[in-house]
């Protein structure tokens, strides 16, 4: 029997697939602009398209009236790309009228939705339920109910201050957990949206991993995992890892700067480069696998083997193809013909850890 996928990989691929389906629907319903599409006719200040994470870490909490940025951060239990959301026309950001400082710190600023942001809220608000209903139709109501039940059994034992989405990765593609100023989640765990139930264990696992690792889980799971002692063409890394070329560039740049990997001219072609691990990188790859094995075993001990195995068993029919073909999740990833994902190659795999960047919060670093 082939080895089972790690729980973190199963959670990641389920969350990424849910997010892409959410994003495709938002793009279809909301006038917008991207680098690949022209501005919608008559939309003089078209919104720059963003991913579901920006709903979870910003738009979900902001209204027409000014609110402190610090309060938005506290409610979201993670930070948004504040300047990006302002540039992309979703929010206004300003200091308090009584604040006379030339450059007030972030936590003292105020934020409110623009008219375009309010429209985006109307479109985004029902989409989580819409996609979950599609999953119930696609995979079966009993399968989704079991997935929610097993996720809730684990999430109920995790830190209540974990965010309901993957945080934007920081320098080194590191996952930051909640701050001490975060607000505990108010909703009962069983009532949480499905993507929140998927995200919280991933955040908790990544924070634990990165306490003991010199490399982030995003780099290890998505890039270090697919490199070896012989060169891998850099242009093939997005296909092998499931993350965008921009995310690959950030990760390989970090690895090369710290001598975990090198990029050299590809001997098989007249142009292009191939990336390979150095001796240091090979040791880091082995150490990372051992740490992942140890944390997997520790979670089984802490939360109960039955809880972990039940969750894996609920995820596998959705994430893993029984015959080695395309996973069932891919059924919902077909973009609309006019969507930006229709203009790029279809993914061969999904990330083994979400690569949420400041570029708009897309789960594969797009």
Molecular structure report:
With 366 residues, this protein is mainly alpha-helical. It has 13 helices and 6 strands. The chain has helices at 7-29, 52-59, 69-76, 82-87, 115-124, 127-139, 141-155, 194-212, 217-222, 237-241, 245-257, 279-303, 305-319; strands at residues 67-68, 91-95, 109-113, 232-233, 261-265, 273-277. The chain has a 3-stranded antiparallel sheet with strand order 1-3-2. The protein has a 3-stranded antiparallel sheet with strand order 4-6-5. β5 and β6 (273-277) form a beta hairpin. α7 (141-155) packs across α8. It is globular and about 60 Å long. The two termini are 34 Å apart.
Features:
mainly alpha, three-stranded antiparallel β-sheet, 366 residues
What does the overall shape look like?
globular
H and E order: HHEHHEEHHHHHEHHEEHH
Average per-residue pLDDT, rounded, comes to 92
Which structural class should the secondary elements be placed in? mainly alpha
Number of strands: 6
Helix content: 40-55%
Count of alpha and pi helical runs = 13
Largest sheet: 3 strands, antiparallel
Distance between the termini: 34 Å
Low-confidence stretches: 38-44
Task: Give the spatial strand order of the biggest sheet.
Answer: 1-3-2
User: In percent terms, what proportion of residues is strand?
Assistant: 5-15%
- Global Rg: 21 Å
What are the SSEs and their pairings?
Blueprint: H1 7-29, H2 52-59, E1 67-68, H3 69-76, H4 82-87, E2 91-95, E3 109-113, H5 115-124, H6 127-139, H7 141-155, H8 194-212, H9 217-222, E4 232-233, H10 237-241, H11 245-257, E5 261-265, E6 273-277, H12 279-303, H13 305-319
Antiparallel strand pairs: 1-3, 2-3, 4-6, 5-6
Helix pairs in contact: 1-6, 1-8, 1-13, 6-7, 7-8, 7-13, 12-13
